[in-house]
Every structure is written in C-alpha cells, then in structure tokens.
Design brief:
The chain has about 200 residues and is α+β, with helices and mostly antiparallel strands. The protein folds into two domains: about 5-105, Archaeosine Trna-guanine Transglycosylase, Chain: A, domain 4, CATH 2.30.130.40; about 115-195, no CATH class. The protein is about 35% helix and about 30% strand. It is built from five helices and six strands; from the N terminus they run ββαββββαααα. The chain has a five-stranded mixed barrel with strand order 1-3-4-5-6. Strand 4 and strand 5 form a beta hairpin. Helix 2 (about 115-130) packs parallel to helix 5. It starts with a strand and ends in a 7-residue tail after the last helix. The relative contact order is 0.16.
Length: about 200
Amino acid sequence: MSATALIPLFPLELVVFPGQLLSLHIFEQRYKTMIADCRAGDLPFGICLVQGGEACAVGCALTIQEILREYPDGRLDLVAAGLRRYRVRATYEDQPYLSGLVEYFDDGAELMDPELAGAAEERFLQLLALVGAESGLPQAWSSFHLAQRLDFSLEERQELLENTSENARLRALIKRLDLVLPAMEQRRELRRRAQGNGHLKN
C-alpha cells in the first residue's frame, strides 16, 4: 500500500481499528455506487468518525472481505476488514460519494514494552473469563485487538486510533481494564449470592 492514495470515504458515527472486522448494510445509492467502484477496481474505502457534523481527518482504510448478500434493489450486506490508518489531506466531491487524498501512517519507531503487553493481556483474559467468552486473542495481537472489544466512547476510540504509540495505547487499555474488572467481579459475586438465596455455597 503506497504512502498516499485517492480512496472513497465513508463518514460514519463509528471508529474502526486496523485488524477489525466490520459488518455493513449498504442501502444509500451513493454508497452502493461506492462499493461497486471498490469491487471493480479492487480499492479500499475509508471510514472516518463524524463528530458534530464534521468528519475527523484520521480514519481507517478497509478492504471488502466478503459480500454476504446482494438484494434485488442493489442493497448489500458485506464484511470489511480494517487495514491501515490515514490522514485526509484533501477531499473531492466529483463522484456521487466523497473521496479523499489520504496519507497512510503507522506507529512511531518504538519497541513494545513486554511488561505492558503482558499486563494488558492478563487483564483482558480475566475479563473474558468473567463474561464467559470463549474466543481469546490471536497469537500476534496488538492494542487494537483489545480496544475494539472494550467499551470506549467514540471520542476515546478516536484518540486511540490517532495515537502513534503502542505502549501509550496499552497503558490506556490497562487503565480501563483496572476500572472494569472490579465492577465485573462485584456483579458476578452479587449474582452468585442471588442464586444462593443470599448464602454463598462452598
């Protein structure tokens, strides 16, 4: 993927991370056209968060992974995968949909702190155990794999997307998990008490 590219843009009240799978239902005519152009030219498209009527400059490019269903009226159900982050340098309205000249970017030159990674993974696995989730983490995971599965606000998710330090994102995740885990454990304890009619069973 080159450093800069002209890609279709899909502004939504949504933040997508690299590596994230996203299901979309395409129903507006301009976006039906956009997806048709992406399929014809094997192009990615960009999703950027809309806040206060304005689209954020930083977004994530996605590629179409699978068309799940095509309806007679042209609507589509599809799955797309987050690829890489970008900054919009210019926008154009010469198509039915918005397009943008984007500059792709990655994290800065920094080694991931293994202690931070281990702390984040340990807490995340604790959370999965508390909610009874069966799926864990892929062998090669990043902070974005965790962030997409945690309850962040749109503003917080956008901050994580724009952050170019893996270690800084891991610290933010650990901080959130340290807030979430005690509350989850307390709720589980209350459920156990309720199931035991107020008495804990040995």
